[in-house]
Design a protein that fits this description.
78 residues, mainly alpha
Length: 78
Amino acid sequence: MISPAPSASRIERYAAEAAAAHDVKPADVIGPARTVTIVQARWAMWKRLSKDGFSTSSIARAVGCHHTTVMHALKKVA
């Protein structure tokens, strides 16, 4: 069974919160940029989604990456 993906509004809200905490733009958190600060904010957003009960696969589908990328991030942030 495929778990539901987080809603776009939830992703945008969490991206805005992570962006504010890391002093970057919310669009950068969702976008493809890979600077250290942006990646840390993105990983924080993914961690929050994971804590809300979303699987790595559903997070990856919602943000357009592979689930192993999310798994790697969650190990680094943990």
